[in-house]
Design brief:
The protein is mainly beta and 576 residues long. A 6-stranded mixed beta sheet has the order 10-9-12-17-14-15, with no helix packed on it. A 6-stranded mixed beta sheet has the order 21-20-25-30-27-28. A 5-stranded mixed beta sheet has the order 11-19-18-13-16, covered by helices on one side. Lignin degradation and detoxification of lignin-derived products.
Amino acid sequence: MRTSSLLSLAWALALLASSSSLVSADVVEHTFEVANVTMTRLCRENVIAAVNGILPGPTINVREGDTIIVHAINNSPYNLTIHWHGIFQFMSQWADGPEYVTQCPILPGKKYTYKFNITAQEGTLWWHAHSSFFRAWVYGALIIRPRLGHSYPFPKPYKEVPIVLGEWWNANIIEVEEEATKFGNSQRLSDAYTINGLPGPLYNCSQNPETFRLRVRHGKTYLFRIINAALNEHLFFKIARHTFTVVAVDASYTNPYDTDVIMVAPGQTVDALLTANQAVGSYFMAATPYQTVNTSVVPVADTTTTGVVVYQGSTSKKPLMPTLPPLNDTKTANDFFLSITGLAGGPHWVPVPEVVDEHMFITIGIGLDFCDLQNAKCLGVGGFKMSANMNNESFVLPQGRGFSMLDSFYRNANKGVYTKDFPDQPPFVFDYTNPSYINDLSVAFAPKTTKVKTLKFNSTVQIVYQNNAIMGPENHPIHIHGFNFHVLAQGTGNYNASRDESKFNLKDPQIRNTVAVPYAGWSVIRFQANNPGIWLVHCHIEAHLPWGMAMAFEVENGPTPETTLPPPPPDLPTQC
């Protein structure tokens, strides 16, 4: 029996287990009111739009098998959608959330109810707005614990601690985006990174209440649920004199991995155990960016956010500071990513599909677009607008075309919303990571399109993501909606199948929903397209989605009603 059939059987058994265990499943219901609120950070008041008046927004706590219902009420002045990052949305595809892809936006003064089940997933995920840069304000943790009667595949921690890393602007983030879009340059830098919404004491005019504090008991073990909700930056995370044991990434269990530094790309999550085994005192936790691209092309806010771990009984007034990696420490970043392996045979483990039906080679990188301003100069490189692409196709969301992409798929009435000709290969082959291409304008421009790749239901897809050096190589976190995937291998330079296939981990690769494609390097992933619908694929550096580093998969319906896209909910927004 081929592996894809085994995977389908495993998925069917998971659904059967879910339906037969409804007695242990709950309905977890929330109301999210998004509205303007005044918050003070860095000695400045700023009006932001937040969920229920708090930043980050409410943490959703569920167990595997539960159903989540969220009533989203948009009392802000901006369009809104919410994405449940990493949730499969099997048979609830309309709830995935990316604007103009699976739904039209929730307009100001309107509301929409998201409803979906949590099946065969445990660990740390998160939710965030999927309308432009709105997710700088609208985001929060989504914690999935084992079903009642089941346990973690590691010793139960004394306490669980969500650590949500974000960014703060002393500005209106929507206006920041509008300015960057108009002039075609990178948006203005954030004024601070944050831990659970607070910048910490290293920033000018950051007061004591603006620091996250965690009180711990000596000898106890804590489960840190770390989420990178920052818009644009990979982040190193450390706690002075302490080490972590990584036990999960992107809500998929891993073999235990001991480290004193955690690397988390935008969109990714890491679950890590920490034992409070140091001398009674206080210790800074800190997050600082990792960036490799030429800062004249994409600037970076090279600052550090901190919180404080305080031992019970400590009288220390001055926390110890960890030694943090430098901004461009690619070795430390790669060492972390390459050291993670999946917990084969653990809860919800899915084996690697053996037979591949679709092979894709996708180049990803930054580029340029022509300036369309009549009476002003664009501010991107060379007076152009900054752009980005996959396989030399720069993705444009189908705003103003009447339907979302998923609605168009459901009605089988494309009406010019998208085309089905995303290429399996780049249009030309070159020395992708050669730095001589950094300033080569002849390869920097890509057409603006809305293209998808059509996949047969249950087909197995293998993708090589290849970074290129055009406008400068960078580490790109690529997120695929609707699926987890196995990360078979990663490396630097240009991918070479005859050399690099021998590096594939087919036994216990890490399973993710967001892969950090290395600086000047490549990643190979594999997944089974067992989820019908339209699924966005994009770089989770927020500036790169409007620039065009995206595409989508159109997964055809399966042979049964249970594998066919259901009708849209009656309250689904329809103004696209």
